[in-house]
Structures are given as C-alpha cells and as structure tokens.
Fold each of these.
Amino acid sequence: MSTTPEVSKPAPALEPLALGVCSWSLQVKSVAELKNFLDELGVDVVQIACGDPHHASWDEGDDLPRAARAAGFTMTGAMLGFPGEDYTTPQTIQKTGGFGDPALRAERLQRLAWGINRTVALGLSDLTLHAGFLPQVGSPERSSLLDTLAQAADLARAQGVTLAFETGQETAELLRRTLDDLKSPNLKVNFDPANMLLYDMGDPIKAVELLGTDIRSVHVKDARRPKVAGSWGEEVPLGQGEVDIKRFVQTLKSVGYTGSLVVEREVGDQQGRLRDVAHGLAFLRDCLANAT
C-alpha cells in the first residue's frame, strides 16, 4: 500500500473571493512589519514569501514559520523564487527563470524541496512558483523540462503540497496542453492576468475560461501590453490597464473559482506600493459589490 499522503485541500476558513495581498509586494522584512501593513490595509489575508535567504528573505530567518503562524493573519499559500532569476528583460528571465536552464535543474529541485518543507512548516498546502518558459509541443527541449516538472510534482505530492505555476510566460493553450500532458493532480495554476499582458501572451479573459478548472490561486494585477515586440509591457494600478478587472472577476466566478483574490504590485517604492495595493483592494471591493 502506498504511504504517499493525499494532496491537502485549501483550508476552509476563508470566505469565497476573500481579498488579500502578496507579502513581497509590500517589501516587508519582518512578520511584525507585514502585520502592521495588513492592519493598515484592513485585510488579514496574505500569500507569503517562503523566505529563501537569497530571495525575499525575512529577519526571522528559520523562525519565520512559528512567527507567521502566531501573527494572527490568514495565509493562503507560499511563494518560492529561485536565486539568479533575472527579470531585467523578457530575454533574461527566459534564460534564468524557473527550471528552464538544464544546468540549474538539479540545484533548483533541491531549492524546491526546501520550499516545500517551508510551506509545510507554515501550515500551508499550496506553493506558487514560475516553472520557467515552457517549450512548444514538438520542441526537442520539451520532454526533459516536463520530466523535471514531474519530479517537482512528486516532491510536492510526497508532502501533501500542491504546486501552482504562475501564468504569463507562455500562452494559456500551451499551459493547458502541458498540464494535460503531465497529468499530475497536484500541479495547478496561479493565475496572474497582468503577466499575460506583460509577456504579450494572449487574452487573460479567454485564458481564465481555458484554465478555469485548474486555477488554484490568483494574483490580481493590471498591465498594458508592450509597445515594442520583445520588450516588457507596463504594470499599472488596478483598473488603469488592459485586463478589464471587473470582467476578469466575473469570469473567475463563472468558471467556479472561489479562492482568494490577492493583490500583487511589483513596481515602485514601498510607500507607493502600499498606496497602490490600498487602491487595488478598494477597486476589487467595488467590483465584487457590483458584480452581476
């Protein structure tokens, strides 16, 4: 008989479509600072960075899980970034992101194992990360990357953790095909509509419809498409970009999504981000209040 634990389901405590924020968006360094900002924003829901010493580190260090669990806020899941990921341009992140570089895969699987253990220590069952740019069907690089993603799924499943891949670095059609090919029940989607525009990878509304059954969590962010092919689009405050946030929320509801809506902001200084997150939360409250 297999001793592999079942993949844990999300904790039932949250209200459907509960509003929250990504810890890294607030550029916080300690749990106390995060708690103060959440209180200021009027929310107690957060997706929390794992705290890799090389990426989104915490003053609490290895004591982060205990401190975060004692803080009194609700964590929806954890986030893992890999040391060396370079978002300077779309081209640099294609070379350095996720499991894309074969030379880094073994090392990053070890880092993932650390992140999975940290997720469990936080009392969570969901871990979000960028898989890396997915090769097209028929590409000679595709098989080896999918093998690595299958290994990642196995590591997570052994600890009862679901991995949610961030959207944006590929089209929804390619991500859909990849999930279907992998057939791993604990590989899901963290949907970020702005990423699809920043990378110019299609219509985020149609992507929700295509990926709906596998959307595990959501980063709510807005953006405009790049003006020059091969360059970045522009991230903007909610409601000022091309996502159509109100329609996005309605479409999430139409595909049966009931998880949290976590605002992410990745540009600007700390006070600017805090202001924009506050605006985003107010904008989402209005969208939900007026949803049909």
Amino acid sequence: MASQPMTIDQFPVRKKEGPPLTMVTAYDAPTARLLSRAGIDIALVGDSVAMVVQGLENTLPVTIDEMIYHTRMVRNGLDGPLLVADMPFLSYQISEEDGHRNAGRLIKEAGAQAVKIEGGAEIAGLVRRLGLSMIPVIGHIGMKPMGVHQMGGFRVQGRNAASRRQILNDAEALLEAGVCALLLEAIPASLGEEITRLSPVPTIGIGAGPHTNGQVLVFHDLVGWTPAPLPRFVRGFGKAGSVMEDALSQFRTAVQNRSFPAPEETYGEEQKASPRKTAKPKGKDE
C-alpha cells in the first residue's frame, strides 16, 4: 500500500505531533525517484542547482526558466513528497507583479505545489498576494544565499542582538503574512529554538540547530557526492561519490581489456531491444 502523499494541510499536525519533517533537494527525475522510495516528505527544487549542478560560485545566475525546467523534471519522477520550488534571484524582487507571475509559472507550468522565497518583512506583501491566489509560500530567513555579496560571503546570521532582532522581526512579518512554513538557515541553535517556539507553522532548519520541526539538506551533500570541505551543518549519510567513481573505473577497465560487452550483453540476429523504463516509483510500502 502506498504511503499517503505529503500535502500542505498536514503541516499543522506535523508541527504539533511530529515526527519532524524531512526535506531534501532534487534537480532531476532520478533523484526524485530516490526521494520517493526513501519516504522523504518534501522535495525542494533549490536554486542551489547553480552551485551543485551548474558548478557556479553562488545561486544568483539561475533564471526562472531554468527553475521551471528542473522542477518539471523532478515532477516527472516524484511520487509522494510535496514538491517545492525556489523563486530565483530577481524573479520577485523587482515588483510584486513579477513575483506573482513567476510563482504562478512554477505552479502552473512546472507542477510545484508551493514556492520558497528568501526574504523577510520586505516580501510580506508578496506572500499575502500569493495567498490570495492560493499559492502556498515557505519563507526563508536567517542566512539568505542571495545576499552573498551584501553579507561578504556565506556567513552565520543572528549572532548579535541587532541581527537576532531583525530575524525575529522577519519571522513575525512572514507569519502574519501567511507563510505555511519557515526555513531557517545558518543561525544559532538558540534562535532556531526561539522561532520554532513562537511559530504556529513548522520550521525547517539547515544549520539552525536540533529544535526545529524539520531538517533540510542538499541531496549531493548528504549522499557523499560533494567534495570537501562541506558546511558545518552537513552530515554525509553515504559515499555515493566514491561508489560512482569506482563504477566508472571498472567500466574503463572492462572496455580496455575487452571484457565488456560480454556475449550476454550483445545482440544476435533474433534478440529484441528492451525499452528503458521511466515509470514513476511505487510507494515505499508497496
């Protein structure tokens, strides 16, 4: 029997009763299938695709069209997790009209079920506007990667009184505007705990301590595909990078010593080609 798909209306229950929410990034259909089979709650198509997949230094170059493209790919492989897409740099900062239009594209064209937006009190009006259009919004406060130049790098936020107060003000403004969850990035654990206690909606942490209502990590980081050094808040739960490198080395050796392809991997006169399967994954309990 398939697991119940994650939906926004389950957030209040998970906030109150648990278990903590799990969120992992995905940028393509194969990763989406893995998240589905593993029972992950939320698939985030992050603008982190710029750094993780495109090999860039920060998230700023990603366009709305690229986010739509990757979100579509994830939608094709997803079965169960809630699909959330990031609003990329300059897709909403110029005007609320732009933000409304681009959030709608992620829902209508790409199949997202919610959008995530970096920002605090300054985006409260957009959050309200999207709510009127029935577009769920996850707010993203604390360390905001789009502000890498303003911050002078990817730096922990909320370590002094002024910064802490600003983050609390941002949280209050977004909660009043109607966000369905708050993502808290790179802030002291005590601040993550305080916001979680005050928030009526779930908090999802990434470098925000153990007291949030959920945790998120980048897929490539947690499976061991990203080269070191990694941020302090990352734990590697696998060794995918070394496994794939070993597979590639074995392939090279097999080709060079002519042990691949073997007779059973070669077509004769009568064998038919087998189609590549692309069906969506079954639920983890099926």
